[in-house]
Predict the 3D structure of the following.
Amino acid sequence: MEFLKGIQTRRSIRAFTNQPVTEENIRIILETAMMAPSAVNCQPWHFIVIRNKEAFRKIMNVHPYATMLSTAQAAILVCGDKKLQHDDGYWIMDCSAATENLLLAAHALGIGSVWIGVHPRESRKKAMRQLFNLPEHIEPLALVALGYPAETPDQPTDRYKPDRIHFETW
């Protein structure tokens, strides 16, 4: 897929077929996520690959916007390591960049995905900590559901908003 076209056509997918996502594709997606830029190249990310349907059910019980896991074939919990970050709070930007790379890599492979927000909601973070036994210095940022699309969302023709662009000053 041509790079700019990939960015322009990626959409959140919330319904998936039962076609499995291969281990090879998961590895490619994670390799691409780890190519993201990070402050001082600290790379403070960790990823938990989840395939267990019981784990999906538990997540759906504690996260009000995770119902798409009912058809997902895999999910990846993106976490930040406060011990590895460049400075306080930088893990958020670094792991967000990794999450965006993850979403784009999935799309390039024909795999649908959706970013399910965890941070900054304390109740969601606490639930993910408990479900996945996260150490104290590990912060959950986002959960990404993965699977082959069972839907085709509308493609907006243009999201470019010139009124949101400012040159030199506001």
